[in-house]
Amino acid sequence: MTVPNATKSYHDAEGKSVNDCPQDPMIVDRFVHMFRHFFGQKFTIFSSGEGGGWASLVALRTGSNAVVTESNSYSYYYLTQRLIKEAGLLILSESNKKKFWQKIHDYCSSHAKENKEQLERVEYLVQKLNASSSFNGIGQNIITQIIQIMAAEQIDPREIEDNSLVAEALRHIEQLKGSDCSGGTSFSG
To answer: Which domain holds residue 122?
Structure first.
């Protein structure tokens, strides 16, 4: 496998290279995504000489089990510092994601509060769409409009498979992008 760009070495606070032979985490990431569902909860990554953090960072980001070792105490110290920093960023990212979807839920629910059926649909849609990474980078206004549209449709979204539900939401997004949405629902917050 050819990596398009050489992996940059991780450096300490003084600019000294922590790992002499950096490996691209893309290799481990692809491996995890290919086999994690096959092995299920038993899936565990084992990595020796982990100073650069090429497998441990992927394990952390993907929520996989991992056993990693590093015999060099200098590299081990910086590996733990790097993992602590990454864990903090992941926690912040997850917190921001929860706030993002909570705002969408609150706004859509406030418009559907008089209609119990529509409120249940909104809650279901927020739960299912939140679980998909397909909506990363799409603004709250657009997602809010999509949830309101889908909750009001004749077809009950709770009767649609998850993948088809996500595909339907993405289709609605493409329709919104293709049309003039200036008269659409606005959302601030």
So the answer is: 95-178
Rounded-to-integer distance, Cα 104 and Cα 101, Å: 5
> pLDDT tens digits, residue range 132-169?
878 877 888 888 988 988 888 878 888 888 888 888 89
Hunting for tokens 């206004």 — which residue is that?
141
Quick check: 186 pLDDT over 70?
Answer: no
Q: Is the pLDDT of residue 16 over 50?
A: yes
Instruction: Please work out, in degrees rounded to the nearest 5, the angle formed at the alpha carbon of residue 62 by the alpha carbons of 160 and 68.
Output: 155
Predicted TM-score of the model (pTM): 0.55
**100 and 162 housed in the same domain:** yes
CA angle at 127 for the pair 178 and 184, rounded to the nearest 5°:
30
Say whether 12 sits in a helix, a strand or coil: coil
At 171, the amino acid letter reads R
Give the number of domains in the chain: 2
Residues 172, 99: one domain? yes
Contact residues for 161 (Cβ-Cβ < 8 A; gap 6+): none
Q: 167 with 132, same domain? A: yes
Q: Do 117 and 164 sit in the same domain of this protein?
A: yes
